[in-house]
Amino acid sequence: MIKYITEAHDTCKAFLVNNDLSGSPMANAYIALALLTLALSLLRSKKKRNASIPWNKVPGGLPIIGHVPHIPSILDTLEGWADTYDNGSGIVEVQMAGKKYFIICNQEKAQFIESKRPHKVIRGTKFSQALSSLKSCGLLEAEGETWKKERRLISPHFNHKNLQDYLSHANLVFSRLIKKWLSQCDAGPVTVTQDMHHAATDIISLSILGYDLDSVTAPSEIATVLDTYARLLLKRTLSPFPYWRIPIVGQYLDNGGQNTEKAVAFCKQVLADFASSSQSSNNFLVAKMLKEMGKNADQFPEERLVGNMITMFSAGTESTATTTVSCMYQLAKDKSLQEELRAEAEALEENIESIEEIRKLGTIDSRHVEIPAQSSFFLLPRFISKKSNTPLGPLTSPRDKFCAKRYLTQNENGKYVLSGSGDIPTPSMGFRSFGSGSRICPARHLSMMETSLVLTKILRTFEVSLKDGQEEMKYVVKSILAFEEDLEVVLKPRVPKASE
């Protein structure tokens, strides 16, 4: 508006000067009247535009920073705004740090947005800029043709045959984890959150790079560095300005510069070691990819290869660990469900060496649908509210309620099966398979295999109870929806099966 008023003022002034009317009281009155008329016209135009918008805007935003000060807890605040300001349109508009965001409040609108990904609706530029600043230029950052090309190169290496190769890595890491917890459980509650992050990082390292970090057994600097990536990404994406671009010091204000340098150096060193070695093992992703690409390595430049490696660490570790920890919490709260799932775990062979064995875990595996449904809202580039309950056949359950007893599995036709019932159409933004969406995570089956396997081993080995005071854990937004504090559980070793 200021721009238009200034232009009008200059036009009036030029007219008066050209007609030798400048400086007189009458001229000043004409200018004031013209500016007032223009201001009122623009104000009416703005009100008319706002009236034509079919959704509500959250009131009370401040200049430049918008509603940022109103968000002590982003999840609770968004849910509150969705409940308070949705006028039935399914959309609520909010301003944050100079950017316009939308809270999507119903299934129809969420489904419409998902249907436009990844061609007409793309990620916000701040998200891509944050990924690039951390040298994480991979599938998570890619759009358009780059995304299509890299997905074609990466996805086949997570098919059934290749998952069988990665199963041995998961067995090795989880055997170390169980051994560690057995040595700690007599001393009191065990903090499982960080251990699950270490275990997920170790499996990614073995499965992607063929490199054994073993951070479950002993602290590993590079494992700690890689584990910080998801949180750094969130911090940079939500920053009101790109502070990391400040010359010299910007990259180091949040330790992102140091961590990025270490992560890139680690990945490049592993690639160099592999290229110079004569090892014949091909049971990890990079070896499989390089062998397949052969002389056509230029189709996947080193920068993109390293970026995808870092992406797999940051995305795979966080989602796998958080899902497993969340499930442990729910099982510790529900002892009858814990015993039911234990019986399912005990029915398998003692040594699980086949992917087919894991697929027999129907009830345990159902949590790949349930746990991600803790909330359906997506932080970037839009906010999705979990406002309404999701109907599922004869049952209706709040989104934030874990209910593995429904025995959910997904059919190829995109519908879900409820035990004892036929196909049940489910809203696309309701209970969804782990890693699903318009851009399905190519490594989702690796993560699902990890979580099913470790839960099986935990249920066989321990009776899991909550530490006093952790009966009601709160979910907050970190890099994804996770517990506000670390989960501590009481682990009681079970009597060996033969001795019961």
TrEMBL record:
UniProt GO molecular function: heme binding; iron ion binding; monooxygenase activity; oxidoreductase activity, acting on paired donors, with incorporation or reduction of molecular oxygen
Protein name in the entry: Cytochrome P450
Cofactor(s) listed: heme
InterPro entries from the UniProt entry: Cyt_P450 (IPR001128), Cyt_P450_CS (IPR017972), Cyt_P450_E_grp-I (IPR002401), Cyt_P450_sf (IPR036396), Cytochrome_P450_monoxygenase (IPR050121)
Transmembrane segments: 26-43
Pfam families recorded: p450 (PF00067)
Keyword Transmembrane helix found: yes
